[in-house]
User: What shape does this take?
Amino acid sequence: MTGSFLLLATTIGSALLIGFIPALLVRLRPALAQGLGVSEAAVDRLKTGYLLSLIPLMLAAGSAVDRWGAKEILFAGNLLAALGIAALGMKPSFHSLIWVVLVLGVAASCLTCAGLTLMPLAFWGKPQEGMVWERAASLNLGFIAIGLGALVVPDLCNLFFKRFGFRQCLLLVAFLCLLPATFTVFTGSAEFPEHGRSASPSAILTEPTLWLAGLVMFFYYPLEGSLPSWVKGYLANLGHDETQISWWNAAFWAVFLAARLGAGLYLDPRYEAWVIFFLVLASAITLGNLAGAYGRNSAPQLLLVGALLGSILPTFLGVLLRQFTETQGTALGFMFSLGTISTLIVQPLLARVGRGHSVQVIIRVPLALALVVAVPCLILALVRSA
Assistant: This one.
């Protein structure tokens, strides 16, 4: 194995975990409740505790990446993920589960802040002299693995739960978490990006660009986070049966991930910020058409929404990493901390607004978010072009 291959394997394995850990408390909610012997409402409380823990932990993990480097933080994240998932498999008491969820929060924070800084090196490598880093393109490729970790791995776990049992399945997943940790150990330090020891992570908090990017993240994160709920609800209200809903939903997420693949292969670094703006604007227009031209033939337009939204978040984070090259970890930690706050505040408010209304009214919620996000995206593109 070459060092670059080990780095790629480490990054992909860690990216799968970044997607899987939050999905563990959401998509595996019924299986977790049954396996742990608690109610689904108790699992919801654990999820809320997990999200609350991410707010300070993301900030701390990002700062740690800038101070000590991605290798050490990534290794710690994989190790803690294995420990937390194995502890879940041992069916601890509810009070002990709180500590387990905290361990998973630390793991997710370390994996996110360290893993995302590794993606440009892992996928496209260090550019030749005179060339620019393919940061946004690399993050799009890395986010395919994150998406698979959130969409596919939970379904595989459900199958393993039924076949092998709750404890055996989680212990197997915990063991697999040790593979990227092992790859990290055997990857030379020279393969990892240099971190700015002399940089002051807190200094970027005075940067106006960071707060502008934070505004984008605050309103876009709940938009993407609400996709699983309203996409299925929209298909159901179109009159599709369960089988058709499953196929259309699978097609939506396949197109969503395919958009990331296309951006990872063909995105031009010179136009990243403008690409974000036009994708957000086009998605708002498409959502408006879905709300207005409502009917069974609207399902194909839903796939267009997936194609437009798929690459926005990784491209946006790539622009962020390009702006803050010396404090990438801190910038990522700040963004995901804000994103978590919006998940806890904005997303429940949006769900309450849409409750009891027709699907045509509900779909105006992501439409409104897309329009709000478009404004700071335009300003960010103009700032980047100046």
In short: The chain has two domains: 3-188, 202-385.
